[in-house]
Give the backbone structure.
Amino acid sequence: MSKSHILFLLKTFLCASLILPVFVSADQGLKYNAYGLKTYTIETTHFRLSYTEGLEDVAKEAGDQFEKLYSIYRECYGVTLPTKTEILVVDGELTNGLAQWNLNFIVIWCHDLDFTLRGSHDWLRGVCSHEFGHIVSLWSP
Ligand SMILES: [Zn+2]
């Protein structure tokens, strides 16, 4: 991981740490400090996906979904992103997504993907579409 990549992630986490407390109520608060978690990175043509231990399959599936979306959204919005979109896939106490359009960065918290009340739709495909839609639509001319 390059120095610029680490700085990019630190800036993004700083931004997320300023935003998250607004959306996380006290009883749903994050219960552990993620410092020291080992991360791995895979790349596709248009994305760099970093993930924590045990989430390689989820990251690969998300990468496949993002690549499918890339040409669809690019054709629809006529936008070329300045760099590969950075994706962080982590486990946590939330199942959620966050897009930092100005940083071309997405976080996916994929806790409990098999939650039975979620219904039969594919949550991961949906959150990838939703968050990447934020990125592409706000970069569009
Ligand atoms: Zn949204």
Confidence is low (pLDDT under 50) at residues 18-31.
